[in-house]
Amino acid sequence: MSNIGTLPGERLAGLSADLFHKLQSGNISVEELALFTQRKNPFAFERNEHGHIIVTVTGLDLTGVQEIERLEAAGYVLSNWAKSCLLSTKKDSYDKKHRLVANQLYKVALMPGKEIPDANRTADALRKRGMEKYGYGKPQGGLIPRIRESVSDKQMEEMDGAWYIAGLHDPIEDSDGNPSVLYAYRDDGGRRLYAYLGKPGVQWSDNGLFAFPVLASGTQA
């Protein structure tokens, strides 16, 4: 774990911004705050035996409407497609299939998309790799808003230059009838929550990470 006293000014400023944002949104643990006061970096990335970054988030049992209200109140930018998925009332809706268990801790592995060659980096291939090769759980839509709150754009950039973190969960049909999945995206205009086509053959770029729950954390198989 890095000592804060040895970090360059720009990195320290980024850590401070992350800390204040987490304090403001209520997403910092007592342990993280204690490490910061000890001049230790509380946001150093944990990695598992596969080299994948591990993040831990706390579940919130929120409806899609509540998710939008919460994120926009905190200054996040949501695309119309993401809102459409969150507001869906169809049988595959966020409210019916993607809400987390309130106050449950979810440990999530972030698998780099670049593990799969460009031509083969499809949604079904990525999902199969995470669940079958690494034994991760089934991706859950409700994890993405929590990851968006927990991982800053600066941190995402430091995760091997990633531009997005996607959840290849069961798709939610948006207002145009397209099956879509949620993903967190970093941008100069602010932290963003977007949605993208979740069809099996749809290809993803190599500059993203894919979120899978670690089964030991009590998430669904």
Short description:
This protein is of the alpha+beta class and 221 residues long.
Report on the structure:
There is one protein chain. Strands 1, 2, 3, 4, 5, 6, 7, 8 and 9 form a nine-stranded mixed β-sheet that branches. It contains eight helices and nine strands. The chain folds into two domains: 1-44, no CATH class; 48-217, no CATH class. It has helices at residues 9-25, 30-37, 64-73, 80-87, 94-97, 123-133, 143-150, 153-158; strands at residues 46-47, 53-58, 77-78, 105-112, 164-166, 172-173, 179-185, 192-197, 208-213. It is globular. A hairpin with a 6-residue loop joins strand 7 and strand 8 (192-197). By secondary structure, the protein is of the alpha+beta class.
Morphology call = globular
Provide the low-confidence segments as ranges.
217-221
Q: How many strands?
A: 9
Distance between the termini: 32 Å
* Oligomer kind: single chain
Integer average pLDDT = 86
**Total individual domains:** 2
Work out the helix count: 8
How would you classify the helix and strand content by structural class? alpha+beta
Helix content class: 25-40%
Q: Which descriptors apply to this entry?
A:
221 residues; alpha+beta; 2 domains; nine-stranded mixed β-sheet; 8 helices; 9 strands; globular; disordered C terminus
Summarize the topology.
Blueprint: H1 9-25, H2 30-37, E1 46-47, E2 53-58, H3 64-73, E3 77-78, H4 80-87, H5 94-97, E4 105-112, H6 123-133, H7 143-150, H8 153-158, E5 164-166, E6 172-173, E7 179-185, E8 192-197, E9 208-213
